[in-house]
Design brief:
about 375 residues; alpha/beta; Rossmann fold; N-(1-d-carboxylethyl)-l-norvaline Dehydrogenase, domain 2; 2 domains; seven-stranded mixed beta sheet; pentose shunt
């Protein structure tokens, strides 16, 4: 490749691939790299299919770094923690003073501040950038929350302004948050609030289904109506979509086949921990986190639901209340996990077969509306 690209992206799982294609679609030539080289080839092929987008793939870190125009800007989208440190170590060997690394994953903000200081000692710039909107947002327009080196932000501002979601009357959904790990901190709080919203929706679903006996068709209609009023939001919209999708592996609706066991990446727990450190009450987020913990105890819940709890005294009544959710065999966590797979491709387990599955909910919902 004779002409250097404008930017690089390392880490080509679902979010990384989609963000790379988004950047390329805005006519910024981009270099991509992944430790598993098949992901590189897959991304380049997608770029061809989706409009011959200017995506250039590399199978080794040295040629990847050297393909980018100076001062180099590289976005990482890898798992938080040790994988981030390893990727930085791999890439920084070939980078020069003034080059910039951006962590686009969900990372603990203190890790970002540690890395920014370490990068500064090498003469490199560093940003921690929250990326919100899931896989569809990454492809079509995410909300971006960069924090750290302002100089680094200015290197990439023109790209971020075009890649971010474009909101009528207010412009691109991106701004420089501030120094240190502030971008990651804001994204952490954003995710914590989202935990609460998702649990509230799940509990509304639980009441409508368990008490109101609404069918999935009726639930789809209710949430679609809610999404046209003051509850208009991304989460209400995708929830309405989820109830409309049939199971292609059998009869009925897919949401009923999703196992009621919710995963998590850690940002909700970090939010609750940080709230405790600052002596700030966050009961809704804490309760939603507890619900995710309980959903993970599937075997224990099934066993508890089969046991006979004797009641009669005050202590027995209190015990009954303490094990509300713990002795329920079925929780509305299936909806939460379906939502997580819809917006973040986090996969889900099924009630009828073993394994992890991912569904392109958005495409199926779009097809059902045609």
């Amino acid at each position: 490749m004779a002409t250097p690209t404008r930017i690089g992206l390392a880490g080509l799982a679902v979010m990384g691939q989609n963000l790379a294609l988004n950047i390329a679609e805005k006519r910024f030539p981009i270099s991509v790299y992944n430790r598993t080289t098949s992901k590189v080839d897959e991304t380049v092929e997608r770029a061809k299919v989706e409009g011959n987008l200017p995506v250039h793939g590399f199978h080794d870190p040295e040629s990847f770094v050297h393909s980018i125009k100076k001062p180099r800007v590289i976005i990482m989208l890898v798992k938080a923690g040790a994988p981030v440190d390893q990727t930085i170590k791999t890439l920084s060997v070939y980078m020069e003073k003034g080059d910039c690394i951006i962590d686009g994953g969900n990372e603990w903000y203190e890790n970002t501040e540690r890395r920014e200081k370490a990068m500064a000692e090498l003469g490199l710039l560093y940003l921690g950038m929250g990326v919100s909107g899931g896989e569809e947002g990454a492809r079509k327009g995410p909300s971006l929350m960069p924090g750290g080196s302002f100089e680094a932000y200015k290197h990439i501002e023109d790209i971020l302004l075009k890649v971010a979601a474009q909101v009528p009357d207010s412009g691109p959904c991106v701004t420089f948050i501030g120094k240190g790990g502030s971008g990651n901190f804001v994204k952490m709080i954003h995710n914590g609030i989202e935990y609460g919203d998702m649990q509230l929706i799940a509990e509304a679903y639980d009441v409508l289904k368990s008490v109101g006996k609404l069918s999935n068709e009726e639930l789809h209609q209710v949430f679609s109506k809610w999404n046209k009023g003051e509850l208009l939001s991304f989460l209400i919209e995708i929830t309405a979509d989820i109830f409309s999708i049939k199971d292609d592996k059998g009869d009925g609706y897919l949401v009923d086949k999703v196992l009621d066991k919710t995963g998590m990446k850690g940002t909700g727990k970090w939010t609750v921990q940080q709230a405790a450190e600052l002596s700030i009450a966050a009961p809704t987020i804490a309760s939603s986190l507890d619900s995710r913990f309980l959903s993970g105890l599937k075997d224990e819940r099934v066993q508890a639901a089969a046991e006979v709890f004797k009641s009669g005294g005050v202590c027995d009544v209190l015990t009954e209340q303490a094990v509300d959710k713990q002795k329920r065999e079925q929780l509305p966590a299936n909806l939460v996990q379906a939502q997580r797979d819809y917006f973040g491709a986090h996969t889900y387990e099924r009630t009828d077969v073993t394994g992890s599955f991912h569904t392109e909910w958005f495409k199926l919902a779009k097809q059902s509306k045609i």
